Amino acid sequence: MSAVKLTSAANAILLQYSAPVWIALFGWGFLGERTTLFDWLTIALSLLGVGLFFRDGLQGVSSWGDVLGALSGVTMAWTALFLRRQKAGSPTESVLLGNMLAAVVGLPFAARDLPPAGDWAALFALGVLQLGLSYFMWTKAIKYVSALEAMIFSMLEPVLNPVWAFLVIGERPAGWALLGGALVLLAVALRALVPTLKGTRSLMRAWRRA
Question: pLDDT tens digits, residue range 105-161?
């Protein structure tokens, strides 16, 4: 949030989604999840897509904002790493506790400038659906996919923004945004399909040997 206030939103989001790089670097030693050449290729494709998506909004506004954006990428990566470490347990409780602590810490700041009464319903919906429900599903998913896969799939979040904006308010995305979004979708599709195809080939070879 501080990065968004100090630099452009595009800078902050792009730097935050450097998280897969940190997961790739630390995941092997911390989780024993080895990063392959294919993983690095999907990371590069995803980052290129996000960069093109926010191309028009990228600008040098504040070095401190960019630093905070990059640090948010590191902390986002370690969130995924720690939750994946708890795959045999229940990472949902950890997320619940973390958000409760964040609420307690943030409450004094929120009390300084309370939103209008008409905005509380929207805030409640955002907290329960946009954040709460998505976090719940993410903690369930991370028990079955690697930390890197979970983060790469999460990169769909910013590129789906213009889809909802188009459907709800009719705002048409720019050409660069469409190209960047397509690259992220391609990276996610490759990351999901290639392991499945490899498994299918292995089953076919085993069937033939049998």
Answer: 888 887 777 778 778 888 888 888 888 888 888 888 888 888 888 888 888 777 777
Sign of CA dihedral 207, 39, 9, 101: positive
Q: Please, how many CA atoms are within 13 Å of residue 143, restricted to the half-sphere of its CB? A: 12
Quick check: 52 and 185 in contact, CB under 8 A? no
Q: Which two tokens stand for residue 178?
A: 């469409």
Round to whole Å and give the CA distance between 95 and 78.
Answer: 13
- More confident of the two residues 175 and 23: 23
- pTM score, whole prediction: 0.75
68: tokens are 């905070």
Are the C-beta atoms of residues 19 and 151 closer than 8 Å to each other? Answer: yes
67 pLDDT tier (thresholds 50, 70, 90): confident
∠ CA 63-68-71 to the nearest 5 degrees? 125
Which residues have CB under 8 Å from 154's CB, separation 6+?
Answer: 138
Angstrom distance (rounded) from CA 49 to CA 21: 15
Dihedral sign computed on CA atoms, order 32, 184, 192, 154: positive
